[in-house]
Amino acid sequence: MRTDIKRTALNICTYCNLKCKHCLAFIPYYNNPQMMSYEEAKKILDVYFRVVDSVEHFTVTGGEPLLNAELKNILGEVFRYLDQITGSVDLVTNGTMEIPEGVLDLFEENKDKSKIVLSNYGEDLSIKIRNIETELKLRNINYRISKFYGGDQSLYYGGWIDFTDHSLKWTTEIERDSNAQGCVHRLGKYFVINEGELHCCSRSFWRIKNSIIPKVRGEYVPLMDDSISIEEKRRLLLEMYEKKSSMSCAYCVGLRNDVPRVMPAQQMK
Ligand code: SF4
């Protein structure tokens, strides 16, 4: 059976130069942030693209990915798999740092199948966003700006969700499935790669990492575990794909349109 998936995000560092209280990936709460090396990324991508036949959008993210000094080489490796990426290679950055020339060159060379996503947290935080936009326009590189300031941030498309309450919320499988079926992550079949493991979202990864929920088979794909064959990893991915919800969804409000919003990018002290 084929493994054609919609979207995967590769987290290449859990360092960030901002401290957003409601970060979807809980980056400010990491005690031991990690920086992925080029060699690690190469191994992960090699296994990932044997497990996955095709992916529509492949995103490189963090933390803030520009803090990873090997970003250009890692992206270069991602672009090697363009024949399996049907949509685009995306890079998400927070508009606080200029994008290095070498990285821009890669996006310019592959402009038909790539995009830079700039998170704009306003002039006080995303201080380089205008310079970056000017450079992207000059080079005719595809980009999108996600605006997270001004206006009514309580609206679902502008505000963020507070996922920091990890208490049990749905006690039956029917409740859990029903709530998760309104979650953008679950419905869109998004996946994330964190520390060499494929998870259905960063909330799930975080809850397993911090023993809020147990680590059980069928809830993640251990890409770097050589004792498990590629075929078995494909089966695990398909198992995750078919479930209506995961254990993490029982502890989660979900990325749903009807969940109250909080002001984006609130900085922790
Ligand atoms: S409900 Fe929560 S844990 Fe489940 S997929 Fe959505 S964001 Fe992830």
What report would you give on this structure?
Strands 5-4-3-2-1-6-7-8 form an 8-stranded mixed sheet, sandwiched between helices. It contains 8 helices and 8 strands; from the N terminus they run E-H-E-H-E-H-E-H-E-H-H-E-E-H-E-H. The mean pLDDT is 95. The chain is globular and about 50 Å long. The protein has helices at 38-51, 71-79, 101-109, 129-138, 173-180, 184-187, 202-209, 230-242; strands at residues 4-11, 54-61, 85-93, 114-120, 143-147, 190-194, 197-199, 220-222. It has a single domain, classed as Alpha-Beta Barrel (TIM Barrel), CATH 3.20.20.70. The termini are far apart. It binds iron/sulfur cluster. Residues 180, 183, 185-186, 200-201, 203-204, 246, 248-249, 252, 254-255 line the site of iron/sulfur cluster.
